[in-house]
UniProtKB/TrEMBL annotation:
Recorded superkingdom: Bacteria
Iron-sulfur found in the keyword field: yes
InterPro entries found in the cross-reference section: Elp3/MiaA/NifB-like_rSAM, MJ0683-like, rSAM, rSAM_sf
NCBIfam families per UniProt: rSAM_PA0069
Species of provenance: Aquincola tertiaricarbonis
Designated name of the protein: PA0069 family radical SAM protein
Domain Elp3/MiaA/NifB-like radical SAM core: 81-309
Keywords: Iron, Iron-sulfur, Metal-binding
PANTHER family: SLR0285 PROTEIN
Length: 374
């Protein structure tokens, strides 16, 4: 960021009203932008007119990309996996709170509107994964699919990139976990269930609220809460160990529902549950605060005051150890609520250790082609 640039939290935002089907219509400038722009009243009522106009939800643009690598390393002690695979950049689900929104800044795109309308598809993901796993020095490590995007967002139905990745993992007998808000994962039960039976796969479903009206504005293009519960039931019935992420917890918005969400998840067949308090890194902060003012103006100040209480007086805390859980009285109270509800509902079972002993190095495309000649 330039020394004289405004921090993301102070950027002016678009006066536009919410648009159905999108988390935001604000094309907020990212933190690396060299130019700053703001709305200007030309004296002809342009700003007022723009605010009153009805806006059509912007369409989604898909950009296919051939990537050099697909495995990303993780050095955070707050996360239980060492490697991640994100088949896409950006996510059409449009969750306003998504901590991954700022990653679009590295593409010179807006973490706001562009994040949910400019989707980058890593079309050669399976090929790059095969190459990585086939290297002589590669050693299998805990791997998660979908940590910074939803691997089953709508475009996956057509492109099937996530499925091709899981096919390579299944061939190599490489353990993995996957987290999603989409019922689309049910399509791949035929691949995941056999691996789960051999302690090589687990699934997590994120359920933020049971209120369909709140879900429509909080995560507008994700599956409905009831549909996600059906997905938990389908995965569990197939023998796949399912955890539920009640995340993020937003004070006075979905926080009162925490125990009800966990109870519904347990009834659907989940075996574990956890929660993460709301994080507001970089451009997510002004985006979320605008959303609050638009949808919950009566409690916006209370929500932000409680968030700052958990974050040492700041809007966000990026420190390892506290960024997921928060700190202070309210954060500890929330932790105890989740812990006690999990114990009462049988959702406090430890993760089953995944079995890495069955890993077998896959052949590259060149090796497969060579073998077919003999």
């Amino acid at each position: 960021m330039r020394p004289d640039a405004q921090p993301a939290a102070t950027l002016l935002y678009s006066p536009r009203s919410p648009v159905k089907g999108r988390g935001t219509v604000w094309a907020i400038e990212h933190r690396f932008t060299s130019d700053a722009r703001e709305a200007f009243d030309d004296g002809w009522g342009a700003l007022e007119q723009a605010a009153q106009e009805e806006h059509v939800a912007p369409g989604t643009e898909l950009v296919e990309e051939n990537v050099k690598s697909i495995l990303s390393g993780n050095d955070s002690p707050d996360i239980s996996f060492d490697l991640s695979i994100n088949p896409y950049r950006g996510c059409e689900h449009g969750c306003i709170y998504c901590f991954a929104r700022p990653t679009h800044s590295y593409l010179n795109l807006s973490p706001g509107l562009d994040f949910e309308t400019r989707i980058i598809a890593k079309v050669n993901a399976a090929e790059r994964l095969r190459q990585a796993l086939s290297r002589p020095g590669y050693q299998p490590l805990p791997l998660n699919i979908g940590s910074a995007t939803d691997a089953y967002q709508p475009v996956e139905r057509r492109l099937r990139i996530t499925r091709s990745v899981i096919e390579v993992l299944a061939e190599a007998q490489h353990p993995f976990s996957v987290i999603t808000k989409s019922a689309g994962i049910e399509r791949d039960i035929d691949l995941i269930a056999p691996m789960a039976a051999r302690r090589m796969a687990s699934a997590y479903v994120s359920i933020t609220t049971l209120d369909p009206q709140l879900a429509r504005i909080l995560e507008p293009r994700a599956a409905s809460p009831q549909r996600r519960l059906q997905t938990v039931k389908a995965l569990s019935a197939a023998g796949i160990r399912v955890g539920v992420s009640v995340s993020p917890v937003i004070p006075f918005i979905n926080e009162p529902e925490v125990e009800q969400i966990m109870a519904a998840a347990a009834e659907a067949g989940a075996s574990t549950a956890f929660s993460i308090v709301l994080r507001l890194p970089w451009e997510v902060n002004p985006l979320f605060q605008q959303w609050l003012q638009q949808h919950f103006p009566d409690r916006a100040d209370r929500v932000m005051a409680r968030i700052r209480e958990m974050r040492g007086g700041k809007d966000n805390d990026a420190h390892f150890g506290s960024r997921m859980r928060g700190k202070g009285v309210w954060a500890e109270l929330l932790h105890q609520r989740v812990k006690k509800a999990a114990a009462r509902l049988g959702l406090d079972r430890e993760r089953i250790p995944l079995d890495f002993s069955q890993f077998r190095r896959p052949q590259t495309a060149a090796q497969q082609a060579q073998g077919s000649l003999f």
